[in-house]
Amino acid sequence: MKIYTKTGDKGETSLFGGRRVPKDDLRIEACGTVDELNSVIGIIRALKTSKALDTILQGVQNDLFILGADLAAPVSSNRRSSMVPRIDRGHVAATEALIDKVQPELPSLKRFILPGGPLASAHLHHARAVCRRTERRAVTLARKERVNPLVISYLNRLSDLLFILARFASQNAGVRDVRWFAPDARGQRRRLRN
């Protein structure tokens, strides 16, 4: 089977069910950001940081394939739509459970932190930012077309999980969070005590 089909040469692609849309359609944009997020997570997994982190991220990648299918198949009452895997309350609850499991292992956070740290942590912060963009694209799409509302809930929790995992990766590498230094009233940078 050839990888190229030439069906997209005129700037269109197909949604689940065969409907042709422009490649910059809101639904395609949302699907594309899901794909980008999944690719960033693949980079993190390639770093081979820890078995625990890899197991969590593999589960996230599997969820993102479901989420991509959910977005690619407009929600409707027809039979074909009901056969598409969808993000459900179980996906949201499982993500919340992971947050609740990992967060107590981290020092409490009283100030904003800068994205960075060791490489895995920096990539997890990048993944979190891409996840937030994915969520924004899904919200924009939901204003125009019918979208499974649990897609937005899942992405919201996932960005929280990625933030927690970025801190977890730093802690596992023995690196402290880098706190943001807020300017003082005159706009001068001041150092906050740790």
Secondary structure: elements and pairs:
Layout: E1 12-14, E2 20-22, H1 26-46, H2 51-72, H3 79-82, H4 89-102, H5 119-144, H6 149-172
Antiparallel strand pairs: 1-2
Helix pairs in contact: 1-2, 1-5, 2-6, 4-6, 5-6
Textual characterization of the structure:
It is a single chain. The protein has a single domain, classed as Hypothetical Protein Ta1238, Chain: A, CATH 1.20.1200.10. 57% of the residues lie in helices and 3% in strands. It contains six helices and two strands; from the N terminus they run E-E-H-H-H-H-H-H. It has a two-stranded antiparallel sheet. Strand 1 (12-14) and strand 2 (20-22) form a beta hairpin. The protein is globular.
Key features of this structure:
6 helices; mainly alpha; about 190 residues; about 55% helix; two-stranded antiparallel ribbon; single chain
Structure in a nutshell:
The protein has helices spanning 26-46, 51-72, 79-82, 89-102, 119-144, 149-172; strands at residues 12-14, 20-22.
For this structure, what is the CATH class? Mainly Alpha
List low-confidence stretches: none
The order of strands across the largest sheet is 1-2
CATH topology: Hypothetical Protein Ta1238, Chain: A
Instruction: Calculate Rg over CA atoms.
Output: 19 Å
In the CATH hierarchy, what is the architecture at level 2? Answer: Up-down Bundle
Q: Which oligomeric state applies? A: single chain
Euclidean distance between termini CA atoms: 58 Å
The number of helical elements comes to 6
CATH superfamily annotation: Cobalamin adenosyltransferase-like
Number of separate strands: 2
Determine the structural class based on helices, strands and strand pairing: mainly alpha
Beta-strand fraction estimate = under 5%
